[in-house]
Each structure stands twice: as C-alpha cells, then as structure tokens.
Amino acid sequence: MVGITAVYDIIIVGAGPGGIAAAVKAKEAGLNYLIVEKGEDIFSGIISSYPTGKEVYPTIPKGASEGYLMSLLKPPEKKVTIEEFYIGVKEALKNLGGLNIKTVEEFKSFHKEGEILVVQTNKADYQCRNLILAIGSNIPRKLKIYGDARPIARTLHDPNKYLNQNVLVIGGGNTGADVVITLSKLKREKGDQTKVYWANRGEKFEVVREVARDLGEEILLGGDIEILEDAKPVIGEVDESGIRRLTIRIEEYSLDDEIKIYRSMSFPMKNVIACIGFMGPAQIFEQLGMELMTHETGRKLELVILDENMQTSIKTVYAIGGAISPSYIKRSKDGKSDEVKHLNLIYTAVNDGAHVVEHIASKLKGSITPS
C-alpha cells in the first residue's frame, strides 16, 4: 500500500453523475477532494450497463421541487446517446480545468481513527473528513429460475450480434424498452425478418414518457415487436443438441385442482437479454457497518437509513444516487423513520451530490450557493 499523505475534506467513491456533481461542487467551494473510480474513466458504470446508443433524457420526477442543480450534467433537451452525453460532459469538465480523480482504483473499505476516516482501495490508503459513496446499483438481480442462467446477457453491447435471430428481452422497465427499441430499429433498417419478443414477469410495463414515445414510434414504423405479459422464466437447461436454453411460461390453464396445462416458449440463451435491473448495494452497506432496515413493499428489501442530509448511521459518511435507489429510509431528528422513494435517474444523482457537498461545505467553511 502507498503511504497516507494529505487529509482530504471529501473523498468521493464513484465517478457517475452523482460523484461528478459532488466533485464539481467541492471544487467550486475550494474544498480538498478526491474521486476514486474503479473504471477507466468517468461514467464507466452507466456506459457499461446501458445499451450501446441508448438515448438519455433530462427527466425530472413528477412533483420535484427543483430543477437540475448543475447544468453541465443535465442531458440536452434534444435526443443524445449516452456516448454523446459522456463526450459533452468530458469537454465541460476540461473547460473547468479537470477534476482530481484516480481511475482504475477500487474502493475496498474504510475505518475511523478518531474524527478522521481512513479509506482503503486496492492501491492505497487515504485520509478524509467526509466520505461520499456514489457507488451506483450495479449488482445484477437474479433471474430466479431452475437451472443455470449465467450465460444470459444483462445488457446490449453489440446489437449486430442479434441480427437474423429471434431475440427475447426480459424486463418491463426503461432498460428493457431501450434494448427492444434498439434491436427492432436495427432489424427493421437491415431488412431482418426475425422478431424481438419483449417479456415482463408482471402484467404491467413501466417506462417513462420519453421511452414510451420512442417505443410507439418504432412500432408505427413497422418494428416487429411481440409483447409477452406475465411471462415467467422457469427453466435453464441444455437441450439434446447441446444448446443452452431458457424456457419461459407464457400461459397457464387449470384443468382441476391438481392438473395444470402450461404454454411455454424456449429460446437459446445466447438470444436472451435479461434487463431485470440491479440491486442497491445493501450487502456492501452492511459490510461497512451501516444501519439498514428491513422493509416490505411487495418484496423484502434491506434499505439503508439516512438522515435529512443523506448521512448514513456512520457520522460523516454519506450515500447518494443509484446506491440508494429505488428507496431508502429517512430518519428524522425525532427518531421517526419513513421510506423515501428515490428514482434512479441522472437528475436525482446530480442533485444528491450537489446537496451533500453544500451540507459538508457549510459545516467546514460556511455555506455555498447552487451553481
């Protein structure tokens, strides 16, 4: 390990929208800060998890009380891909003189020595007064089938590999819809007659307005998309030809109390993309010694507990962005605990980062104003 030198006012773990917002705000405030990012550059997490060419939007949740607190991290109103957005942010940061960031360096843990936090990575130990965890939600959810589902892709890196193949996309949210749109558009433009099947384990597909609009446009233009509601992945197996397959159950009939008839479809696993989301890093929070609360909203969740300033149960350690989505427990000063919905959006991550650094700066050296 490299020896400890300076004591930073803030160390930020993660260089996604939330981490970058926090760093820019810290730089504006004249604070001594450092970003630690395990990827090769900023936005590594979202670029690797989004489909290639995915469009990003300046979506603000309904009922939000404020706009973007940092304009350089607001996606343009016109359609841009995640790659174009990344290039624009890189250029804006260059114009600001860059940021103090160490890439290809993975956060491991931290401990306290008095009022100082010692942050450990795979390369060095660092000291800081405040730690912001902007680590995203990059632990894939399990498909929960009988058999092995490991060969199934979790995102769309190369759409061309799915040409001339019927493709099954699992997941009724925005990411699943984005993959369906991208594949359907490519197949349509290439004259590919194969189909995109879009399956959701529930009956309700939930996408934001902009994605629903793009999906409607693709269908109107002739995209060959078949929607499978209440489709349940059930078995992963190897067939008699040695091909790994995923079977999904799409209909169920009961003859009597004991006998059921199922209608199913089977796809080669290489033709399946499971966009079923990622889990917040509850296990990581628990390992770091942070207080969690078990909460049941349809399924059992372990939610991190934060105060009104997004501080965890460990003083001077904060959690923001996708790491606390889709919800967290807010504990007020009087001890009351309430679940707070927290959409995993660029907007929420950016504003989280700005708010937390404003709070830290007000403690360290007087308040700063939003940019």
Low-confidence stretches: 367-371
Compute the number of helices: 7
Give the topology string: H per helix, E per strand.
EHEHEEHEEEEEEEHEHEEEEEEHEEEEEH
CATH homologous superfamily caption of the largest domain: FAD/NAD(P)-binding domain
Radius of gyration: 23 Å
Shape: globular
Give me the CATH architecture of the largest domain, please. Answer: 3-Layer(bba) Sandwich
Average pLDDT reading: 89
DSSP E strands, number? 23
Would you tell me the structural class of the helices and strands?
alpha/beta
Beta strand % = 25-35%
Largest sheet: 7 strands, mixed
CATH class of the largest domain: Alpha Beta
Task: Please bin the fraction of helical residues.
Answer: 10-25%
Q: Could you name the CATH topology of the largest domain? A: FAD/NAD(P)-binding domain
Number of separate domains = 2
Distance between the terminal alpha carbons, to the nearest Å? 38 Å
Summary keywords:
371 residues; alpha/beta; FAD/NAD(P)-binding domain; four-stranded mixed beta sheet; 7 helices; 23% helix; globular; disordered C terminus
What is the topology?
Layout: E1 7-13, H1 17-28, E2 33-36, H2 44-49, E3 55-56, E4 80-81, H3 82-95, E5 101-102, E6 107-113, E7 116-121, E8 125-133, E9 139-140, E10 146-147, E11 167-170, H4 174-190, E12 196-199, H5 209-220, E13 225-228, E14 232-238, E15 244-254, E16 260-268, E17 272-274, E18 278-279, H6 282-287, E19 292-296, E20 300-306, E21 317-319, E22 327-331, E23 337-341, H7 346-365
Helix pairs in contact: 1-7, 4-5
